[in-house]
Amino acid sequence: MASGRALLIGLVMVAIASSSSAFAEKAQTLGIDAKGNAPAELDAWTRSEIVRWAEVAKAAHISAD
């Protein structure tokens, strides 16, 4: 599943970047609360977002086909 792999790679890249002090400073100037979570928290959030946006897509009759 390419999209799952891309999501995972993106999340890893964000995790690496967010550990950088330069990233944290830039994020703060943009009003972003950059913080890291435990893997289980990230997993739970990701799963809830998938459900959330799947419902939105379904209601709007949007499909990946």
Note down, in words, how this protein is organized.
This protein has two domains: 1-34; 35-65. The mean pLDDT is 81. It has helices at residues 2-18, 21-29, 39-59. The two termini are 15 Å apart. It has 65 residues and is mainly α. Helix content is 72%, strand content 0%. The chain has three helices and no strands.
Keywords:
single chain; 65 residues; mainly alpha; 2 domains; 3 helices; 0% strand
Reconstruct the topology from this structure.
Elements: H1 2-18, H2 21-29, H3 39-59
Short description:
Helix content is 72%, strand content 0%.
Task: Tell me about the largest β-sheet.
Answer: none
Shape: elongated
Radius of gyration over all CA atoms, rounded: 15 Å
Q: How many domains would you count in the coordinates?
A: 2
User: Oligomeric form of this entry?
Assistant: single chain
Beta-strand share of residues: under 5%
Give the helix level as a range of percent. Answer: over 70%
Overall strand count: 0
Low-confidence stretches: none
